[in-house]
């Protein structure tokens, strides 16, 4: 995404997950450590899938497959700070038979719970693999149907 593409608010169709910034998320200056945005994105993706009835452990148990992150691209705009309440989004950007690209954003929320500042955005490619061999495989059709 280029700066001119930066949205003024979270996409309406995106799944939204609240995240509070704790001490453990910050550096010595009270600013969120950059790698922790990937953790926030992971939580939002997991909860998004769960909201669609796709529990990852149950999925692995029933299909023998699982999602793994194969690529990330992240752009940082502004820092989040200790005690901030964030809204982290996840939305399907594109998908194929063996991988999905998820668009994600982290927004700062104001006292009324409105998203006011885009802090971080990125895309995460997740691939489907056989859980025992970790070899790429096709995403089960029922999962693709749930996501579309």
TrEMBL record:
<dbReference type="Pfam" id="PF03061">
    <property type="entry name" value="4HBT"/>
</dbReference>
<dbReference type="InterPro" id="IPR029069">
    <property type="entry name" value="HotDog_dom_sf"/>
</dbReference>
<dbReference type="InterPro" id="IPR006684">
    <property type="entry name" value="YbgC/YbaW"/>
</dbReference>
<dbReference type="InterPro" id="IPR006683">
    <property type="entry name" value="Thioestr_dom"/>
</dbReference>
<feature type="domain" description="Thioesterase">
    <location>
        <begin position="29"/>
        <end position="110"/>
    </location>
</feature>
<protein>
    <submittedName>
        <fullName>Tol-pal system-associated acyl-CoA thioesterase</fullName>
    </submittedName>
</protein>
<keyword id="KW-0378">Hydrolase</keyword>
<dbReference type="InterPro" id="IPR014166">
    <property type="entry name" value="Tol-Pal_acyl-CoA_thioesterase"/>
</dbReference>
<comment type="similarity">
    <text>Belongs to the 4-hydroxybenzoyl-CoA thioesterase family.</text>
</comment>
<dbReference type="InterPro" id="IPR050563">
    <property type="entry name" value="4-hydroxybenzoyl-CoA_TE"/>
</dbReference>
């Amino acid at each position: 995404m280029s700066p001119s593409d930066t949205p003024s608010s979270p996409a309406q169709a995106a799944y939204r997950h609240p995240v509070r910034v704790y001490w453990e998320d910050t550096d010595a200056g009270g600013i969120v450590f950059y790698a922790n945005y990937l953790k926030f994105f992971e939580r939002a993706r997991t909860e998004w899938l769960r909201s669609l009835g796709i529990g990852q452990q149950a999925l692995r148990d029933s299909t023998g497959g699982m999602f793994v992150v194969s690529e990330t691209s992240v752009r940082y705009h502004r820092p989040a700070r200790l005690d901030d309440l964030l809204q982290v989004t996840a939305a399907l950007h594109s998908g194929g038979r063996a991988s999905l690209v998820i668009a994600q954003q982290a927004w700062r929320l104001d006292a009324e719970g409105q998203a006011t500042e885009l802090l971080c955005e990125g895309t995460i490619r997740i691939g489907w693999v056989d859980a025992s061999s970790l070899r790429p495989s096709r995403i089960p059709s029922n999962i693709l149907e749930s996501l579309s």
